[in-house]
TrEMBL record:
This is Transmembrane ferredoxin. InterPro entries: 4Fe4S_Fe-S-bd, 4Fe4S_Fe_S_CS, Electron_Trans/Redox. SUPFAM superfamilies: 4Fe-4S ferredoxins (SSF54862). Residues 268-299 form the 4Fe-4S ferredoxin-type domain. Residues 11-22 have a biased composition (Low complexity). One of its GO terms (molecular function) is metal ion binding. The lineage of its organism: Bacteria, Pseudomonadati, Pseudomonadota, Gammaproteobacteria, Lysobacterales. The keyword 4Fe-4S applies.
């Protein structure tokens, strides 16, 4: 390859590059809608009633379970355990079919972390304001959210009206105060200090991903055929989709990825003329955006929570360079390798069957116990 270096240019600051941003994606709207739904359900359900009884309450003191109109004794917990298992199997089914949508949209860790970032954007007026009072305001707001989360959590085990009414006069019993304080503190510290580290190091769902997914399950991928070889270049050269170079063959693309990911064993990377470069400008925006600290260009990683932050960052780079979006995209390995659709997939079938079985057991048990 020829080696034309253009030291005056960098991937993030092309002098003549257009400055437009990638259009707002439908998934941003979906993420906020799901966030509102999850928060609304969690904070709202303890207040809802059905035929003059709580909609959902595991009343520890009265030893009664109110479950969507059914009044159960606490010893009827077995059908509820079947129901929980049905939910777990359904989550596995959705994961095997569509990837980690739960992590990207609905997991409480994701929702609360996203909510905390929204609080920070609010108190800093989206990065435009700051000052000494900003951290105080931010921490006060987050402490209030955490306290309300603790109260709401205990509200699933003791009528929430009594909890809220007893707070001002300090009339709550010891276990209620303990668990409110525990969950408030856990919410506060978890989001402030751990955030996505929970996904990487603590969450069991994250650890079992290889058993839930197959080559046909969509996840976040870097399109190495289009992106490699990566490198900074002069503005205005156009995407590989617009110039003669086109897409690489998969073996060459993988070779470039390996060389970039393992410089110690592969040796120094060659430099390429602008005409040979792929669409990755090597700006590292995707790496900086990743809350886990992954470089998605190195290949799929089981720690990836499919949050799409790298996709958004890369789409912005593509837009600034006048390239089409989608260098980092949601697709499956089978689609990348252009395999024909599968007629039989063991995991979805297994998880579908388990979901149905647990649901039948739960419904039968709930009807018998009511
Ligand atoms: S930023 Fe990209 S690589 Fe990182 S967790 Fe999110 S989707 Fe995965
Ligand atoms: S994949 Fe996209 S965001 Fe990441 S370095 Fe390449 S151009 Fe930049």
């Amino acid at each position: 390859m020829s080696s034309i270096q253009r030291p005056g240019y960098s991937a993030t600051a092309h002098p003549a590059a257009p400055t437009r941003r990638a259009p707002v994606q439908r998934r941003h709207v979906a993420q906020w809608l799901v966030l509102a739904l999850m928060l609304g359900l969690f904070y709202g359900v303890p207040w809802l009633r059905w035929h003059d009884a709580p909609l959902l309450l595991f009343d520890i003191e009265a030893r009664r379970i109110h479950f969507f109109g059914l009044g159960l004794r606490t010893d009827a917990i077995v059908p509820l355990l079947w129901l929980a298992l049905a939910g777990l199997a359904a989550l596995c089914l959705v994961t095997s079919l569509y990837g980690r949508l739960w992590c990207a949209y609905a997991c409480p860790q994701t929702v609360l972390t996203r909510l905390h970032r929204a609080v920070r954007r609010l108190t800093t007026l989206n990065g435009r304001a700051g000052g000494r009072t900003e951290p105080v305001l931010r921490h006060a707001l987050w402490a209030a959210v955490s306290l309300w989360t603790g109260i709401t959590f205990v509200g699933y085990f003791s009528p929430i009206g009594g909890l809220v009414g007893g707070l001002p006069a300090f009339e709550l019993g010891g276990w209620k105060v303990f668990w409110i304080a525990f969950y408030a503190l856990a919410t506060w510290a978890n989001v402030l200090f751990l955030h996505e580290q929970v996904c990487t190091y603590l969450c069991p769902y994250g650890r079992v991903q290889p058993w839930l997914t197959d080559a046909f399950t969509p996840s976040i991928h870097y399109d190495a055929r289009r992106g490699e070889p990566r490198g900074a270049r002069a503005a205005g050269g156009g995407s590989v989709m617009q110039r003669a170079r086109g897409l690489l063959d998969p073996v060459t693309a993988r070779d470039y990825v390996f060389r970039a990911a393992h410089p110690a064993s592969a040796g120094p990377r060659p430099t390429f003329s602008d005409a040979h470069l792929g669409d990755c400008t090597d700006c590292d925006a995707c790496v900086r955006a990743c809350p886990i600290g992954l470089d998605i260009r190195n290949g799929r990683n089981d720690s990836c929570i499919e949050c799409n932050a790298c996709t958004d960052a890369c789409d912005d780079t593509m837009a600034r360079n006048g390239f089409p979006a989608g260098l980092i995209l949601r697709t499956s390995i089978a689609r990348i390798e252009q395999r024909p659709p599968a007629t039989f997939r063991a995991r979805p079938l297994l998880f579908g069957a388990l979901t149905a079985l647990f649901l039948v057991l739960a419904i039968t048990g709930l009807l018998a116990a009511s």
